[in-house]
Amino acid sequence: MGxxxxxxxxxxxxxxxxxxxxxxxxxxxxxxxxxxxxxxPVTVTPTPAxxxxxVAGTWFVAGxxxxxxxxxxxxxxxxxxxxxxxxFGGEFGDAVQNTxxxxxxxxxxxxxxxxLPGERYEHTATLLPxxEVLxxxxxxxxxATSAILYHPQSGTWSPTGSLATERAGHTATLLQxxxxxxxxxxxxxxxxxxxxxYDPQSGTWSPTGSLASGRAGHTATLLPxxxxxxxxxxxxxNTxxxxEPGPGTWSPTGSLAxxxxxxxxxxxxxxxxxxxxxxxxxxxxYDPASGGWQPGxxxxxxxxxxxxxxxxxxxVLxxxxxxxxxxxAQAGSWTPTGFLSYERSANPLTVLQSGQVLVSNNPLx
Length: 365
Description:
Helices cover about 0% and strands about 40% of the residues. By secondary structure, it is mostly beta strands.
């Protein structure tokens, strides 16, 4: 599955149906036999956001959200503010949230906005040409087939058409047509290969071609050609496919050298795609002209849950733990940016209208 594993109740059952272990509430423990000795829940406080200024070459600490929050996407609005909705949070960081908050770069503060109709995590949030935000699927009571629209002018939410398939950990890609392609993900049946298309004009979904294999925790990148590159994922960790919007079909393309799950893909101005994280510390670069991948070096601090974003200079900012470095894809070189004030793990990076980069949310637990 995509994202981090979290359980409010975990049990391991032997062949005879004997309960062998458990984990309750915010405790993180596993017992193989006898009474379960769990440590006390750890209170989680909201981690302040930080912004990076490439011109100044420094990090700045910004405001914290009202609650600790992880596994929630961040979406840049037309106003320049950033919307973060849902995810995990609460006192122990393991309660699914229905709240939403807005970051204002002018004040570096967060304010609450309208709450989601239901809690959700591992959902997607896509800015539509209209300025509305389409939130799709995810685990939690919000509904894995539901889709809702955020209206920035009023700070409210409204329902829109529902998916045909329950899904979380999927990708959502705004196509050149203005439609949104949702692909893959996971649910009770395992990793999904199905894909669906959302039409903002009608507010409805329609089926489109399925991936060759199920995948979750993958990336989906809109290429200048209008095609969509899907790469890696927990179910198909080193394969890649291309989606052709016209016929609505998928075709295989070159495979990654290493399997990746919950990685990040960044489109360069050249049209090439940089992939980093998801386990290995190495970088791989996809060339649409050849359909192949080339090695691009390694993130010096190591692999794991990383975040990345392309800056105005075309350098790629990569963040992992408290380390951050700038990657020059043409030279294949790295430049340290200095340490962050707080540890990070798969935190969203949002390039603001000023060119600064916002890192938000608490680290994945």
